[in-house]
Amino acid sequence: MLTKQRLRAVQNDSNVCADIEGFDFNAYDARDIEELRRFWLQYGVLRFKKTGITDAQQVEFSRHFGDFVIHPKQKQEGGHPTHTEILVISNAMKDGKPSGAMGNSEATWHTDTWFYERPPAGAILRAVTVPPSGGDTYFLSTYSAYETLPDALRKATDGRQIFFQNVYDKTGKLRLGKSTPGSRDFREWTGIVHPLVRIHGETGRKALYLGGTTEGAWIVGMPLDESEALLLELWDHTTKGQEVFVQQWDQGDIMMWDNRCTMHRRDGFDPSLIRIMHRTTTAGERPV
């Protein structure tokens, strides 16, 4: 009788990603999923190389990691024609209109939907069509960002809360269902308050929680100028002082990340080249 190949997680050069070896998307069981979850919580980001799976397989695999979350873009241009769980990220055009979300421009460092009351726990992103170059995705650990804070910065962040407005997106467009606010002070707009340092709901580890931009973000109770200065210092520490893993995509690659303890960004790419990615997103807890 053949012995089933054991799953392995091979850590990359960074402190935030591991390659998964020995996982068969056509034949896995509860023990395999349990092991993957352990690796996911340990490393923050997992990579599966050149999987060749279908949309249906991606959806079924994702179910094992929590309830689905509908990304805001799925309600606009990023909906999938048959699998409502999938966000289509694409710069391809169909009948003169975008066939997916997010185009070909650069996406700056962020944690997914940080402006939600319950931001997603994780995301599973699969490369359907990739250009020969460009569109690389970068990941870093916000555990590490917190753990490497100088003492003075750590004292300034512990116990603090951060407010994120949820009226405008990072490009300055009104979010779906929002209207132009009457006040110029974003602190008076609708938004959400989260801890600046969150405790991961499963590992219990502390992670810095900066969301996706300094614009429209305020450390509650601080004078605005002091808040802006501290946030800029924290962003600089996080995005310039941490090890980063760079994913250069091949068709069929899957990246699976823990949104509670990582940040990511994307390079832009030549608009004449087509890049299509299919993403599923899983529900998370309210940050504490």
UniProtKB/TrEMBL annotation:
Span of domain TauD/TfdA-like: 19-281
Pfam assignment, any one: TauD
InterPro entries the record matches: AtsK-like, TauD-like_sf, TauD/TfdA-like
Superkingdom, taxonomy of origin: Bacteria
Swiss-Prot/TrEMBL keywords: Dioxygenase, Iron, Metal-binding, Oxidoreductase
UniProt-recorded Gene Ontology molecular function terms: taurine dioxygenase activity
UniProt EC number: 1.14.11.17
Family named by the database record: Belongs to the TfdA dioxygenase family.
Protein name (database record): Taurine dioxygenase
Organism: Rhizobium herbae
Source lineage: Bacteria, Pseudomonadati, Pseudomonadota, Alphaproteobacteria, Hyphomicrobiales
